[in-house]
């Protein structure tokens, strides 16, 4: 979704390569040269070959899948795989079968060639030997060329299948019904698109070898049986026993023929067939999981259009979530203007908005939505891109509207604080922004889109009160005044300001007008005015004529909480920036990586065992490895492997971002945009993966060619050089009539003068003459066979071993990346060695604590010192904008595992804690499932579950990070009572910026931002000293004065006066005002 400048990528040289270049892999040579000269970077990744573009492949597979669903009652992924790719794959398999069968000629030719070296051979001439030697070399060379091209072809075919299924499944994600996510998690979906589709690719590489291997075993067994009889049924080790019993004399050339056949046979039995069976099982298992996913229930898509008179109408609507009726009898009618929806925690407000968007199934009643919709979720959703792109979200840029939206959403000042303004990159899940900034950017995206209906799900709860009021007045009631706006909120100020356009939801039903009136009056009676502490502090300073610091960007973090910085600005470079950029090293993998890897794998003993087993084969490979591998392939191979890993991360990250913001994406009808962006990420990964496979295959091809040359030299050495030397030595003694039919004295000499053939034995005259004149010693058929067969083994053994060493070096880059996380600074060992009952009292003491998130960054806390005695309560807030990190307090599991992760408490204790936090009616079983992030519970319920976790563990220290932001006033009062009663003996630190949370505190701490003389901001936060209650008294006096002014204004206009202020609030305030100096200690 980032429409910034993209780097121009080169066309893949494979596209314009000639046939000769393709079959010899010469088109990879420029990449090897580039990898040797420089470090390969993201810009060196080629454009994806057109036939592997995910859009094309995904559309093709989608058509086959739709046809399967229409024509078959039970759609099958295996059937689709066969119908879409089976015919072509079968043709490839037939070619492979005939090629493997033809390669059986190699041992047959070897047998004929070795006959030339027999002592009593009379039928083989030197010319015949040359023919068989040439055939032998040619067969090996042709098979090498064919085999590598076949392997490359099936790799490319596997890439095609994997890419097609990944693209199809991403489209399916955008259509999934919300109820599906109760049975499948985000992690499961990521596994499906990564691991399971990779199983298809791996299976395609070896499935043909499975059935071809079985047929080859039959053919080879038959061929051996024609030579050896029943001995074919025996193992190789029993040849010596079986053959004499059958009365056969084992000829050397026959032995080597059978050995070559058995080598091929064993390769199938111990290699191809077991591996193929294993991959087939993986294929069917993955296909079953993908099939269940693709058969999941889809959400009906009904495109909405702009209309002149939009409306939202619900009549007696009931909606189900995972088979449970959440909305029971809801009726509402919304025309242009603002409608506020409020209610208790977990009453069904969010479900109501999603029902309007038709995300949930309506079991009964009538629902009508006319007009386009913009939706703002309760949990802000941002995708990794520039901040501007998060607001535009695929819409055309309009400068005037864009600036108006920024002002209405109170983002103008925030952008001024960022070094790169709206070009600042938003991190994954918005980690470099505060929760309030995320909420306002989320709102700005909705407002910028000119929709008819705006559904705002408690999007103001994370904002400071004065900022919340600004957004409410300028944006919701101002900029959107001519739109339908349905706002979910607990803010009494907003509810009171909106008059009668309020809808109360209680336990899935809407209340009558009379019930709503009673509920509203009750809430106002017990309401403590929700005023921002920072705002009040500013008003107090204004009254005292102290220079007020202009709106300044500020962050507050947990005391002692070590995490990423709240503000981490990044610049959008001219070239495309990898939004999921990882550390990417260059050069060789260091020795320390290997040492740590072997240490994790079992230590020195395991390493020595491996070395002892493989040392003989490794010694023979060192020279070739150094020559070819180290200086040519490895620099390129390492770099491409790193690029493959680096381009894989954005694809997975984008997938996660889509799953998190699925409701928002569908509300904005941006599915096509997201599919297009995902295709780009997938294509980039496919291109780098394709480059890696091409270079690896090309390197293997080169090694095999070198080994073929070596084998050819061995064969020609025996058939040419030896025979020439022998023949030259014999001619002076016997003249031209003699013919030497063997390259050595181990062959036969024919005397054409007498028409007879003399056997070459140790007592023969010819042998004696040859040895007397220095001819070569006898080379037996066994010696020649041994040399040639070992050279053949070298063809398969040496390249495979060197390739494995190369892949080891490449794959060690993954270990290198993983070990980066082990080098991250951890908690000091001393601070982690605590007794089981630690802390025993709960005393907290800070002595000039300075904090920075990273050693290279500025300090965010500077010399903070304070002492908090056991059982005391500390309230901390910021000077202007105190907002917390977006935390995910619940994880995948059950209610019990979330409340009691260590499984240390009984069910009775857990139920007791659940009852104390008023969740007993919501939770029916401790084994009730919680999905990722706890999204099957409301935000308020998630906070209560966390509170139950604190209760059951009987902690001595409790930290509440704005725990009441998403709760109604009654629930906020409940939390305050819990702090006062249940946590009476606990040390409590509350991160707050609202007046309603500080009445019971023993100490108050203010985080302040300093400025340098040149007015440039420094992130240096200090705790201000509040040693008297004078400040606190004046903070409480400001809302009283404001309410008095409001009452006077109402009386002048003659309208109904607002309800009286809450007695408890007035009492506390009057006590503070009359007492003057309080005993409240400060910091």
TrEMBL record:
<feature type="transmembrane region" description="Helical">
    <location>
        <begin position="600"/>
        <end position="623"/>
    </location>
</feature>
<dbReference type="GO" id="GO:0016020">
    <property type="term" value="C:membrane"/>
</dbReference>
<feature type="transmembrane region" description="Helical">
    <location>
        <begin position="698"/>
        <end position="721"/>
    </location>
</feature>
<dbReference type="Pfam" id="PF00664">
    <property type="entry name" value="ABC_membrane"/>
</dbReference>
<dbReference type="InterPro" id="IPR003439">
    <property type="entry name" value="ABC_transporter-like_ATP-bd"/>
</dbReference>
<keyword id="KW-0472">Membrane</keyword>
<dbReference type="InterPro" id="IPR003593">
    <property type="entry name" value="AAA+_ATPase"/>
</dbReference>
<keyword id="KW-1133">Transmembrane helix</keyword>
<keyword id="KW-0547">Nucleotide-binding</keyword>
<keyword id="KW-0813">Transport</keyword>
<dbReference type="InterPro" id="IPR027417">
    <property type="entry name" value="P-loop_NTPase"/>
</dbReference>
<dbReference type="InterPro" id="IPR017871">
    <property type="entry name" value="ABC_transporter-like_CS"/>
</dbReference>
<keyword id="KW-0812">Transmembrane</keyword>
<keyword id="KW-0677">Repeat</keyword>
<dbReference type="GO" id="GO:0140359">
    <property type="term" value="F:ABC-type transporter activity"/>
</dbReference>
<feature type="transmembrane region" description="Helical">
    <location>
        <begin position="129"/>
        <end position="146"/>
    </location>
</feature>
<dbReference type="Pfam" id="PF00005">
    <property type="entry name" value="ABC_tran"/>
</dbReference>
<protein>
    <recommendedName>
        <fullName>Multidrug resistance-associated protein lethal(2)03659</fullName>
    </recommendedName>
</protein>
<feature type="domain" description="ABC transmembrane type-1">
    <location>
        <begin position="631"/>
        <end position="717"/>
    </location>
</feature>
<feature type="transmembrane region" description="Helical">
    <location>
        <begin position="255"/>
        <end position="277"/>
    </location>
</feature>
<feature type="transmembrane region" description="Helical">
    <location>
        <begin position="210"/>
        <end position="243"/>
    </location>
</feature>
<dbReference type="InterPro" id="IPR011527">
    <property type="entry name" value="ABC1_TM_dom"/>
</dbReference>
<dbReference type="GO" id="GO:0016887">
    <property type="term" value="F:ATP hydrolysis activity"/>
</dbReference>
<dbReference type="InterPro" id="IPR036640">
    <property type="entry name" value="ABC1_TM_sf"/>
</dbReference>
<feature type="transmembrane region" description="Helical">
    <location>
        <begin position="89"/>
        <end position="109"/>
    </location>
</feature>
<dbReference type="InterPro" id="IPR050173">
    <property type="entry name" value="ABC_transporter_C-like"/>
</dbReference>
<keyword id="KW-0067">ATP-binding</keyword>
<feature type="domain" description="ABC transmembrane type-1">
    <location>
        <begin position="90"/>
        <end position="245"/>
    </location>
</feature>
<dbReference type="GO" id="GO:0005524">
    <property type="term" value="F:ATP binding"/>
</dbReference>
<feature type="domain" description="ABC transporter">
    <location>
        <begin position="749"/>
        <end position="1048"/>
    </location>
</feature>
<feature type="domain" description="ABC transporter">
    <location>
        <begin position="312"/>
        <end position="532"/>
    </location>
</feature>
